[in-house]
Amino acid sequence: MIDYDAEAADYDRTRGGEPRAAAAARAVTALFPASVRTVVDVACGTGIVTTRLAGSRRTVLGIDRTPAMLSRAATRLPGGVARADATALPLKAASVDAVVVIWLLHLLPDAAPVIAEAARVLRPGGVLITTVDKDEAPFARPGGDLAVATEPFRTRHAARRADNADRVLALAAEHGLHPAGESAFRGVGQGRTPARWLAAAEANRLKWAPPAELEAVRAALTALPEQDSPRPDPTYRLLALRARTTGR
Ligand SMILES: C[S@@+](CC[C@H](N)C(=O)[O-])C[C@H]1O[C@@H](n2cnc3c(N)ncnc32)[C@H](O)[C@@H]1O
C-alpha cells in the first residue's frame, strides 16, 4: 500500500483538489436518506471530502489510521477526528446513520472486515456508501486505448480487486445491508498519460502490473500514441447499502 504519511503533503493537490472533493461529496450526499444526522467518514484522509459531508443538521466524524493524513483532517473537521483502523471503529454498535468509505476498499487485501465493521456501527435504516471498482474506472470508457492495451493484465488480476462491486454487494448482503442506490463522481485531474501509468507500474503501485509482468506491461503502454497526453478523467462509482429498518 502507498505510504500515506509520506503522501499527505501532496495528497490534495495530486488527487484532484477541491473540484474532485466537491464532486465526490455531491455524489455521496445525493445518496443520504433525509433522516441522516450522524456521519462517519472512514479513511477520511485529509478530510477534503469529509468537511463537505456536514450540513446544518448533519455532524461528521473523520476516521483514518495515518497520522499525517489525520492531522490535516483535524484542521478541517469541527465534528472531530479519531485515529483508528477501518476494521475496529471506536464507535458503539448501531450508533450512526451513515458510514462513508471513499477510495479505501481497493487498497485492501479483503473488504470483508471493513464491511462487517460498518454494518456493526450502523443504526437500523442506516446507510453504507462506498466506492467500488475504483481501479477499473480509468479503463471504463469503451474503446479507450489504455483500456484495450491493459485489458489482458487487468483481466488476469481481476480476482485481486477487493472492491469488485459484485463482491461488495455479496459481503454487504451477508451483513444485512441491501442496495439502496448508486451515484458517481468525476475524478477531476485523474486522467493519466500512458507515461504516468508506466511510472506507476514501475513503482509497483498497480495490482494488475506485478513485477513478473512489468516487461509486458511496459511494451503495451509504450506502444500507445501520445505518451504525454492525459486520457479523459475517470468516473468513480459509489454504492449505497442500507441496513434493515427492523430486527437484524
Ligand atoms: C486514497 S486515500 C482516500 C482518502 C479520502 N477518503 C479521500 O477520498 O480523499 C486512502 C486513505 O485510507 C487510509 N487507510 C488505509 N488503510 C486504512 C485502514 N485499514 N483503516 C483506516 N484508514 C486506512 C489512508 O491512511 C488514506 O488516508
UniProtKB/TrEMBL annotation:
<keyword id="KW-0489">Methyltransferase</keyword>
<dbReference type="GO" id="GO:0008757">
    <property type="term" value="F:S-adenosylmethionine-dependent methyltransferase activity"/>
</dbReference>
<dbReference type="InterPro" id="IPR013216">
    <property type="entry name" value="Methyltransf_11"/>
</dbReference>
<dbReference type="InterPro" id="IPR029063">
    <property type="entry name" value="SAM-dependent_MTases_sf"/>
</dbReference>
<feature type="domain" description="Methyltransferase type 11">
    <location>
        <begin position="40"/>
        <end position="129"/>
    </location>
</feature>
<dbReference type="GO" id="GO:0032259">
    <property type="term" value="P:methylation"/>
</dbReference>
<protein>
    <submittedName>
        <fullName>Methyltransferase domain-containing protein</fullName>
    </submittedName>
</protein>
<dbReference type="Pfam" id="PF08241">
    <property type="entry name" value="Methyltransf_11"/>
</dbReference>
<keyword id="KW-0808">Transferase</keyword>
